[in-house]
Design goal:
4 helices, single chain, alpha+beta, five-stranded antiparallel β-sheet
C-alpha cells in the first residue's frame, strides 16, 4: 500500500510536470515580463506627466518674461524713434547745404572756410577775382529757392602771391529748412 501511494505521488508529479511543459513556462515568463513592463510604463508615464507639467509652468514663466521684455523693448524703441524724429526735425543737414551752395557757386570763386549754426545760417570766408564776381555770387544765391538772406558785411581787396588782385569777403547765408 505504501508503494501505491508513492506511485500516486509520482503519478501526480509527472502529471504536473506534463502540465507545465516548455511552452507553458515561456507563457508564464512572458506574462510576468509583460506585467513588469506595464508597471514600468505606468511609472514612466506618470514621471513624464510630472515633468511635462513642470516644463509647462516654466514655459509660461518664460513667455510672461518675453512678453514683458517685448513691451519694454517696444517702449524703448518708441522713445528712441521719437528722439530721432526730434533730432531730424531740428538738425541741419550741413552736407546737403554745402552741396547746394557749391553747386550754385561759379568755379572761379573759392570758399576758404565754413561756419554754421542750428538755425541753418552759414558764414563763409570767400575769395573772388573782382568786385563784380562778388556781386554775381550774391545775385546767384538770392535767386535760389533754398536761400533766404544773403549778406556780405565787408569785402577786402588784397593780392595773391603772384600779385594778382584777390577780393576776400565774408558771406552770410540763411538756408530754408
Amino acid at each position: 500500500m505504501a508503494q501505491i501511494s508513492h506511485d500516486k505521488g509520482l503519478d501526480l508529479a509527472s502529471k504536473l510536470k506534463a502540465k507545465w511543459s516548455f511552452s507553458h513556462k515561456i507563457v508564464a515568463v512572458l506574462t510576468v515580463a509583460t506585467v513588469f513592463y506595464a508597471v514600468f510604463l505606468a511609472y514612466s508615464i506618470a514621471n513624464v506627466a510630472g515633468e511635462q507639467s513642470l516644463v509647462d509652468s516654466e514655459m509660461k514663466e518664460v513667455e510672461a518674461e518675453m512678453t514683458k521684455l517685448e513691451a519694454d523693448q517696444i517702449e524703448h524703441l518708441m522713445i528712441a524713434s521719437q528722439a530721432v524724429e526730434k533730432i531730424n526735425s531740428v538738425d541741419v543737414k550741413w552736407s546737403e547745404i554745402l552741396t547746394l551752395l557749391l553747386d550754385a557757386t561759379p568755379d572761379d570763386i573759392v570758399y576758404r572756410s565754413y561756419s554754421g549754426n542750428e538755425n541753418g545760417t552759414i558764414t563763409t570766408a570767400v575769395l573772388a577775382q573782382s568786385f563784380n564776381r562778388v556781386a554775381d555770387l550774391i545775385n546767384i544765391l538770392d535767386n535760389k529757392p533754398f536761400v533766404k538772406n544773403v549778406f556780405v558785411p565787408s569785402v577786402v581787396k588784397g593780392t595773391s602771391p603772384t600779385n594778382a588782385a584777390v577780393y576776400s569777403f565774408a558771406l552770410n547765408v540763411e538756408f530754408e529748412k
